[in-house]
Amino acid sequence: MKQITRRQFGQQVALAGALSALSVSRVLGAQERIRVGFIGVGNRGDQLLDAFLKQKDCQIVAVCDLYAPYRDFACRKITQADSSASQVAQYDDYRRLLERKDVDAVVISTPDHWHALQTIHAFQAGKDVYVEKPLSLCVVEGRKMAEACRRYQRVCQVGLQRRSSPMCRELADFLRQGGIGKITRIRAFHVLNEWPKGIGRPPDEPPPPDVNWDAWLGPAPVKPYNRNRTFYRFRWFYDYSGGQLTNFGVHYLDMIHWCLGVDKPLAVTAMGGKFADYDNREVPDTLEVLWTYPGSVLVSFSQINANAAAGGARPCEIEFRGTQGTAYLSYGSYEIVPEVITSQEVPARTPLNRALEREYRKGAQTQIAGRKQSSSDSTELHVRNFLDCVRSRKSCNSDIESGHRSTVAPLIGNIALRLKRYLEWDGEREGFVNCPEANRLLSYDYRPPYKLPD
């Protein structure tokens, strides 16, 4: 991406808006292929590329990435997989890709701090969007993305692929129908021991010749180049990400919202920090976030330094505790464990009642049948749903509004951690109750000349 002036950037953004007025979505015929451009083809972008290449009604016509080796690798993969893709256009500036009239939809898998600008500009250019999670870096960005999606009447899929998993849908339906009784407690876990080196402590240094550091930073504040701030390790720095709370936590909170049938927490608090402190990260290595939800449900996210299973009674990502049973959800499976219950009152712990307590402990099994269900990765199903919705103009499984709500909960968790406060949340207004200090953290000032569109 070439260095541009503030005036040039403003002119190009205005051009993107003008193009949107002229861009009319193609009416796709049954035999026509959907033409897709990729913005960001490293790591998750490469995984998504594999999933899109398996869809026969999809043609990848262009790729964009600041890092030339990623572009070259992606283009080789595309031409090997698709004999009709004799020449795939390459760009280091996503705006050039959005100007193409032969692009119907774009896939955005860049670092989090770029999602809002690229997604809104894609909507303005008349493109449908598959955007990776977390949807945004701050709450205000996500709301503006959702508003733009509606304004320009675009189709958008957020990369929360569990929404396209038949297994996860089955569990969500089961829990919402009262399958384990009244749910009062949900715990989510991210368990990973990165000791002793973590991501390391490399020094700041001049950027390599093949890395346009200023373009990579985009709207983020200017900071010295550090190799830990680029590629996947950007997730350990607040300028570009919300840490594992937004990286994994958005997946977990999205599933929790789906299973509860509610998506707006009432309050949040958090504790944690760099307790192991083995690298130059900014985000915590140890963290506990708690939310309360309507219906008297307490939800938590635990980031734990360990290699073994931690927290839950069984190894799992999410544990749902209900009055009649417990559901344990892992990446590819879930298990329902019935609760031991009795119709009698809980006995007091006195010598006279020990016999009754033993009888209570034996109890009578609830009528829930314990069961396990397993499933493979649902990324391909999620991609398939997106392409189907591009044709039908229907809402995707992980539409932008639900994706935004599931991103909000982790984002306000980071604000609670930063302020060391218990914060009440107004989900309709999307603001904290009586806390201007916290509300100021719902957005951030973009570095000029970048500006979040109104």
Descriptive account of the structure:
By secondary structure, the protein is an alpha/beta fold. About 35% of the residues lie in helices and about 20% in strands. It has 2 domains: about 5-165 and about 380-400, 3-Layer(aba) Sandwich (Rossmann fold); about 165-375 and about 410-440, 2-Layer Sandwich (Dihydrodipicolinate Reductase, domain 2), CATH 3.30.360. The chain has helices at about 5-20, 45-55, 70-80, 95-100, 115-125, 140-150, 165-175, 215, 245, 250-260, 355-360, 380-390, 400-420, 435-440; strands at about 35-40, 60-65, 90, 105-110, 130, 155-160, 185-190, 265-275, 285-295, 295-305, 320, 325-330, 335-340, 340, 365, 370-375, 425, 430. The strands form 3 sheets. The chain has a 10-stranded mixed β-sheet with strand order 16-13-12-11-7-10-9-8-17-18. It has a 6-stranded parallel β-sheet with strand order 3-2-1-4-5-6, with helices on both faces.
Q: What is the averaged pLDDT score?
A: 90
Query: Would you tell me which CATH topology of the largest domain applies?
Result: Dihydrodipicolinate Reductase, domain 2
Q: Please tally the helical runs, counting DSSP H or I stretches of 4 or more residues.
A: 14
Structural class: alpha/beta
Task: Give helix % range.
Answer: 25-40%
Enumerate the strands of the largest sheet in spatial order, edge to edge or round the barrel: 16-13-12-11-7-10-9-8-17-18
Strand content: 15-25%
**Spatial separation of the terminal alpha carbons:** 24 Å
